[in-house]
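Build the 3D complex.
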Amino acid sequence: MRNTQGTFSFLPDLTDDQISAQIQYCLDKDWAVGVEYCYDPHPRNIYWDMWGNPMFDLKDPKGVMMELADCRKVHGDAYIRLNAFDNTRAVESVTLSFIVNRPKVEPRIRMTRQEVDGRSIRYTHEIAR
Amino acid sequence: MDALPKTVDLRGEFESSGVREVLEELDHDMIGLAPVKSRIREAAAQLLVEKARKTLGLTHLTPTLHMSFTGNPGTGKTTVALKMAGLLKRLGYVRKGHLVSVTRDDLVGQYIGHTAPKTKEVLKRAMGGVLFIDEAYYLYRPDNERDYGQEAIEILLQIMENNRDDLVVILAGYADRMDTFFNANPGFRSRIAHHIDFPDYTDAELLAITEHMMAEQNYRATDDARTAFGEYIGLRRAQPHFANARSIRNAFDRARLRQANRLFAAAEGPLDAEALSTLVEADVRASRVFSGGLDSRTAEMEGKK
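Done.
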């Protein structure tokens, strides 16, 4: 099932040129860019593993693309995303987060229902590989 | 695909790309350095023609742009590297045109596994611009087997070959030591397109630099002071650790210090702008250089200066 977390997730996969363009947009706005990866695409898994440190002092997207290429080499079958962090006062949060790499076969998400207190239903989602 | 143009106007390109401004700035801001300026003008012409050929579809390979600047300290290597970065940006050979200036310590780590990430961090920052490595020969230390400079060299060589579109590397240092460095690491020599030597400034050029510095900071010197400065330059050159323009800048700063102290000690009533901006002969003559330099004075006497 195609993971639709993050920005651009309903679009077809971004090419490297398009990713570069997005990173350039972030750099123009002085946002720090970080690379993260994970193997668990559960919608409530919001904390992914960091690949290296966030990059604050870059002038060109090539630096991030180099890190991304290294991450793909090691974790080619993981979900990899780029986060951009805006540190202006009163914002201080991630302003852009988009997936740049997906595993060849994306796992399905299975929903289970649990009846509690008579007929009330509790739902959980699990990753089914 | 759009049809390629049939002709290209080099003069027009020269004007519109802003290359002329950079070259004129170089001519105007940097005194002397005639061989450097002519070499840079040649390089600019070559890059302009390459760009024109690219427009006509004749070539699509990026030319090798890495350079080596050799010369004594204080001869303007870093300043010219900065101008070079601007030039390359105007011609479109680098994307951003910023200069990242590093020495060996920024590239080489202290323990195993430290060098590669350190060098990679510097390279990431420099992508899209120019990486200026000062005293590049310190990367190579064959006598110490626990030295990790070789690793940094390997990474640099690979980047210089594979990322020619993204990064331009400029190595700088003393001429003879750079020669030894290149002989020991032939990979570098073959990757460098332009070897530019920065000659020492002549006394007259150093005096002109002093005048330039004074004018920039709104100082003027009396005629006696100017003569004294001329003599200072001649004497200072003979003393150890002479660093061309940098020594001159330091001398100028010290003259300003003495002027400030003179004005402060003798202050009686208001001083106008002219008094605050004038250097007199005494401000220059007080230097230790006139009496044989640093070594010939005792510590006690130094305290009085």
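Chain B has 15 helices and seven strands.
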